[in-house]
Structure formats: structure tokens, C-alpha cells
């Protein structure tokens, strides 16, 4: 397992240096902070990306967002050919972007990223495709608008 995966900026947009996953691989990204699910999708600086085949993790990599925020993150995951996203909190605008990218959403997760993926593999993680960003979970410089979109 392991290794850093960088996103290269090019005039045409992003390219993600990940191996092609093939037809039998399910690629899952988890908002990542020091081994744990990061609390808010739009502020994550890294994703832990897992490739799963036949119910087993066959590869994992750290995918750095290079400081990109809410608006670009769904695009980064789409370029990385991610099938599912596991995250903590997520706002309505991000939910829409994730759905438009065809990525299945598992929001409201916490704890270890490895444990969250194990729960997904075991069928114990429930797909949640609605915003769960609320006013009580915010820290300085972050708030949710009444339309459910999160702002920095």
C-alpha cells in the first residue's frame, strides 16, 4: 500500500497519475486526515483512494488535492475514475457535483479510513446522498448558506 499520487495542472485541466483501474476494480475515495475520515468534504486536502477487487483492498494511494476546494473536488475524483466517495460532512452543492460525476456517496462517516472502507466492503456502510453539513459542526471561517451550499 501507499505512495503519494500527485495531480498535475495542465492548460486543459487536471490529470491524475493513477493506474488504470480495469473493469473488475471498484475505486473508493475517502476524505483523509492522518488515517481518519476528514470531517468536511469541501475542505479536505487529501483523499485516500482504495482499489477493491473481489471484496479485498488491492491497492491504496494518497491523492493530494493541491489546495483545491469544493468546486474542483468532484472533478478531481471524476478524473481519478472514482466509483464511490466516503466522507464526513458534505454540503448540498458538493452533493450535486458528486451525483453529476456519477459517484456513489457515503456521507456521515467518521473514524479510520481503513475501517470505513472495510465497512463498505462488508455492506455495513449505508449510501447517503443528501447534504449533512449543519451549522453546529462548523469552525471559524466556514458556514453553510440556507441553500445547503458550504462557503469558506
Q: Can you give keywords for this protein?
A:
single chain, two-stranded antiparallel sheet, 7-stranded mixed sheet, globular, 3 helices, 11 strands, 152 residues, alpha/beta, disordered N terminus
Written description of the protein model:
By secondary structure, the protein is an alpha/beta fold. It is built from 3 helices and 11 strands. The strands form 3 sheets. Strands 1, 4, 5, 6, 7, 8 and 9 form a 7-stranded mixed beta sheet that branches. The protein is globular, with a radius of gyration of 15 Å. The protein starts with a strand and ends with a strand.
Quick description:
With about 150 residues, the protein is an alpha/beta fold. About 20% of the residues lie in helices and about 30% in strands. Strands 1, 4, 5, 6, 7, 8 and 9 form a seven-stranded mixed sheet that branches. A two-stranded antiparallel sheet has the order 2-3. It has a two-stranded antiparallel sheet with strand order 10-11.
